[in-house]
Amino acid sequence: MNPILTDRKGSVSEIGESALIARIKAALGEATPPTPRGMGDDCAVVEPRANLITCDSVVHMKHFDDEADPELVGAKLLKRNLSDIAAMGGVPCDAVVALFAPPLLSAEWVERFAKGLAKCALDYSVAIVGGDVAECPTLAASLTLTGRARRPLTRGTANAGDILCVTGPLGGSIRGHHLTFTPRLEQGLFLSMNGAITACMDLSDGLAKDAPALAGESLAAVLDIADIPPSQEALELTEGDPEKLAQSVLCDGEDYELLFAVRAEGIDAFEDDWIARFGAPFFRIGRLAARGDGPGLIDSATGKAPANAHGYEHLR
Ligand SMILES: [Mg+2]
Questions:
Q1: CATH superfamily, domain at 163-299
Q2: In the chain, beta strands by DSSP E
Q3: Ligand 1 center to residue 88 CA distance, Å?
Q4: How far is the CA of 79 from the centre of ligand 1 (A)?
Q5: CATH (residue range 12-148)
């Protein structure tokens, strides 16, 4: 649905801020608790139970286009943040949301967006406790989410020799996965409870950029590229061309799977536990090695940085 109308009829500027907020509150329904925890005061009064906080956004024509269902855009905004909580081994708690609205933004679009956000919030037991609406030339929304983790998983904490793994197939997310993905909260929680896991992050910018971020400054991510599981969409988009497929799994981004490091001596026992819990294996895609002066990402087949591999670099 195109969110931007051609005239004021049905736009947010026709109904005004107060009516728009009332419609958003109605659309959020049970996803927003009663005041003082929910909408209606200057701040939300929340329980001091969180030790994680994250913030992520969706911007029109960058993270969604005019073809996207507004409900899926609302859910995506929350799921991007849920994926970050999953990456830390956390459970989500409360969210506040800011909407940046052009004057000709469709009020119906906002209502459907809020309904999609609310359904996702109820699915994952997140309370939408407040927010803001601001006029802006470009349509965008930003959400801040708190969470709690008993043992937060971090980046840059793995050791040379640890095995690199991913929770699911990569590449081709432009075909729809970037809107319909499931944040890996159960997997992240399971990872956080096992001492053999030394580092974790979610894959949003592409493995080529994210794997060196997980490795940190002193280690290199050595990838067995042929072992990286491609999504069905990546296989279709690249029509079996091995070079294009490698590019797709390394660089497409918005995979929202978890990338994690496991101590080599603990991985077989952990894999048995994982399969018992989830009924399917994770994927071993390489290992971490001392970096020295070399690149942070290495193709194990050549011993060099993969050709043309770069993840999504923001602001370039
Ligand atoms: Mg992340």
A1: PurM-like C-terminal domain (3.90.650.10)
A2: 52-59, 91-101, 127-135, 140-148, 163-166, 197-202, 219-223, 258-262, 283-290, 297-299
A3: 9
A4: 11
A5: 3.30.1330.10
